[in-house]
Amino acid sequence: MVTAKAQIYDVIQQLAQPDEEFLNRFHIDVVDIGRTFNTQENDWYEITLSDGSLARYPQWFHPQRTAQGGWNVRNSRGSEIAIMLSGMPFFDQTRFPYSDGYPADFKNLPAAMAQVHWAALAHSPWDHSSDPDFWQKLRENAIALRSQTDRALMMVCGCNLFEWGTFLRRIDNFLMDLVLDALQVERLLDALLEIHLSTLQKVCAAVGDVADVIRFGDDLGTDTGPFMAPAIYQKFFKPRHTQLCDYVKKNSQMHTFLHSCGSIYELLPDLIEAGFEIINPVQTSSRNMEPERLKQQFGKDICFWEEAVTLVRF
Description:
By secondary structure, the chain is of the alpha/beta class. 35% of the residues lie in helices and 18% in strands.
């Protein structure tokens, strides 16, 4: 009998957690602290993926099969929050809490964020964040992992700003808001920043002296250029990214890493000034993202971290 081996730890993007054999074979020099959670056999169950291959999902994730051959995910209230159509390789967001407009205040922002599949279906370690001993366990696991490997340890923290605007408002609305409704954008970003800084405080206290890298996320680029002009980034996001990076550097030993897909060449000077030390995934197929160009102009100021395997310093 063939049994599933691959653990789909990131159920939204359908990403498998690489096992030790893979890490060794490809000389991977960084590991995610999140891999220290969901380590028991009964934390997983077997599933047949859309291509017919076997894998395992975490026990907390139980999508529903649709009549059309796809899958959907509903929250505790029965509202659909994500769907994976037949043949799709990922779950797409279907619920946008602020699509009809911004609320009068953001007292219920955490509840609105919880309706978004990126929060509701968060991968490890954040799928355990509601556990009463989560922060203690996170520290214990990080210390144990530190003693077991000479690889660098990464802590994934997110702290997305632009992306959370698109998750809540929907991307078409939020892109227009950046030009037409600056006041509401500022209100939302300030509320998000408050939440992110509160999370960072706990992260730095728990693993700031153990982890080597903290990973933020904000996909700022398309294939042909940034989602926004540099002036808009400078107005809305750079000051807040700076606050996040400053907090980490003042309260931990961790290096600041930004995951941002697409062509972000025009934003790199500002990202460097904001305090990011590492950029990933370096999407070299996008406009102006040729390695030679990046090396020549920014190689002395930032580390370019290729997506899957290699940490490259120019």
